[in-house]
Amino acid sequence: MKLVQKPEQFDVLVAPNLYGDIISDLCAGLVGGLGFAPSANIGDSTRIYEAVHGSAPDIAGQDKANPSAILMAFAMMLNDLGETDKAAKLNAAILAQVEEGKVVTRRHRRHRGNEGVYPGGYCTTVT
Predict the structure, then answer these.
(1) What is the pLDDT of residue 97?
(2) Nearest alpha carbon to residue 73 among 19, 119, 106
(3) CB-based contacts of 55: which residues, under 8 Å, 6+ apart?
(4) End-to-end CA distance of the chain
């Protein structure tokens, strides 16, 4: 309950894969949905960056999929590679696009104008 009410209290959450998946989906709701949830799986010698929702082939062509998460995951990778200026530009472009509201998914058109609908941070799963 505290994770939803006061997520700023948590810096890192460590959980087994199943619970990590559930928590990442829950947290995605705090930042605008799964379409705004990038993920980084970080190991000792390997890192994988992806959208929490995966490639979402089941909703392709239905005006539901949101590519922002994979672009945000790419920005996370750029940051980790030391390309912080490029990562910042990419993140700023994503946020500007959503704020403009001309090209957004149906879900965000429906909520346009409501505070807290658009991304204010990241929900990252580290396994």
Answers:
(1) 84
(2) 119
(3) none
(4) 22
